[in-house]
DNA sequence: TGTTGATATGAACATTGTTCAGAAATATCT
DNA sequence: AGATATTTCTGAACAATGTTCATATCAACA
């Protein structure tokens, strides 16, 4: 059994990720502290920096897991949709619910910043692609007039529009929607956008 | 001259706001440091806390000024519009340009958070209303079928949708639009939404 | 079992926002 | 004008934070 060392190393990393996730759930991204995470994971402060590059990278690892959960949820939501409009409605609804049910984790997906000059690793950037990939095929059906390049841009725009509505509401900003209206307004937005898309595709 | 004291006090506060604004422009909201601000304003570190409640409140004051600039820009942009569609296009375009031209200040409007438990003062929350007020009358023309309550909700949703597109792009997230496509995609979004709104109003 | 290389420890450091006792400046009173 | 009181400014000290590093500990192997 020559891998006891690697096992412990992987175990510590997993415990740190779980602890960070729990801390974010309880206190939000801004409330994530190195000391609280290591205490929760049952290791010394310095161990964090041998298991992981630094606290920011730990957040990236938590966000990576959240993104995979979200991707699964969206893929599942759209599985049995009967047409492009129903599919986009199902996606938007599931996205909204995921955000509501996992608020601090979901917010950390979009509010985490790296210090000036640092970049997110490529593998993590790529993980975001699922958010667009689930939209593209259905948007394509609504807009057969668009080329594939324009379509990808439009998918980004479509995602960002729905995302913006959810984000402002969950931030609790003055301009955001009251929580009680969020689901209905997201549905109304998608309805408006699909109606508009069909109208424009018609010429 | 019994107001020399008040004058100096107001002057220090103004210098601090200007310094904070400049620091945010140069280094972003996350790069705003109490020591850098006070050095720039030409006062001691502690003076900040006699002129202003704390660093967060200083950000609120900067944001307040930015919000007024933005309000002026939007009001101006929509002044000579020939119809609701043109008005909404003009608003969205001006909003996008303002964000691009004042990126760090505009980002600080939406990324500044107060520590858990604290609330923004009411007067500052109210300042955000202009972002919705400029939309409502034109949206009302597109959707005469909606009551005034639904209309206000729809204005929040409409704003949030356009805002979301700009925000994700300016954050430089993977799912955000490339800068070069931002203006065109915002226009396309507004076109889609107005077309959809007219279609839905028609019954 | 002793040696070696990796890992964990937690005290120490640097950088923050914030406070506070004393100094300086300003207003008020006689 | 001079004395007193009040407000404001100063910057050293403090607390909270992320990160590092010399040292101790541990696991693999000869």
TrEMBL record, chains A, B:
An example Gene Ontology molecular-function term: transcription cis-regulatory region binding
Keyword Transcription regulation listed: yes
Keyword entries, A-Z: DNA-binding, Transcription, Transcription regulation
Species the sequence originates in: Rhodobacter viridis
Domain HTH-type transcriptional regulator MT1864/Rv1816-like C-terminal, residue spans: 88-192
SUPFAM superfamilies on file: Homeodomain-like (SSF46689), Tetracyclin repressor-like, C-terminal domain (SSF48498)
Protein name: TetR family transcriptional regulator
InterPro entries: Homeodomain-like_sf (IPR009057), HTH-type_TetR-like_transc_reg (IPR050109), MT1864/Rv1816-like_C (IPR025996), Tet_transcr_reg_TetR-rel_C_sf (IPR036271)
Lineage top rank: taxon: Bacteria
């Amino acid at each position: 059994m020559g891998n006891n060392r690697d096992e412990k190393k992987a175990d510590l990393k997993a415990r740190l990720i779980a602890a960070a996730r729990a801390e974010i759930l309880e206190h939000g991204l801004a409330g994530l502290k190195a000391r609280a995470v290591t205490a929760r994971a049952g290791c010394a402060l310095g161990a964090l920096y041998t298991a992981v590059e630094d606290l920011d990278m730990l957040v990236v690892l938590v966000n990576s897991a959240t993104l995979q959960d979200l991707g699964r949820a969206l893929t599942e939501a759209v599985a049995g949709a009967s047409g492009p409009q129903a599919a986009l409605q199902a996606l938007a609804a599931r996205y909204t619910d995921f955000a509501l049910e996992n608020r601090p984790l979901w917010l950390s997906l979009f509010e985490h910043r790296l210090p000036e000059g640092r970049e997110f690793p490529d593998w993590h950037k790529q993980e975001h692609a699922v958010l667009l990939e689930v939209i593209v095929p259905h948007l394509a059906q609504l807009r057969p007039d668009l080329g594939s390049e324009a379509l990808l841009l439009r998918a980004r725009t479509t995602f960002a529009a729905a995302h913006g509505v959810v984000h402002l509401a969950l931030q609790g900003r003055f301009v955001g929607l009251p929580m009680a209206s969020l689901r209905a307004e997201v549905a109304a937005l998608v309805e408006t956008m699909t109606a508009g898309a069909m109208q424009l595709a018609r010429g």
